[in-house]
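Appendix B. One record, verbatim.
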Amino acid sequence: MLILDAHEFEQTEVEGDGAQGVTIQWLIDESLGAPNFAMRRFVIAPGGHTPFHEHPWEHEVYIVRGEGKVLLDDGPVPFASDNAIFIPPDERHQFRNTGHEVVEMLCIVPNGPATEH
């Protein structure tokens, strides 16, 4: 078993087309012995957003704090603190902070291509 202090993990800027005001921390992954999934913490500044993208793996997301919208091909869907969000494989999506405080979210993805960083 591991108990880790998230404040000890490096926060790095998310780079890529369409990312703005987003940092990521890799909290738990294969390097710590997790055989199946990786847990990441994202912080999105007010007005910031992840890229509008898609990939062949799922996401499980928990919104720790803040509010915003998930943009999908079908349009935006609002989210707020304590929402759990499932993004299926190959669904185009973008997380946008539309509030006045940071959005903090945990994102779980399967090990493999999703965790190559």
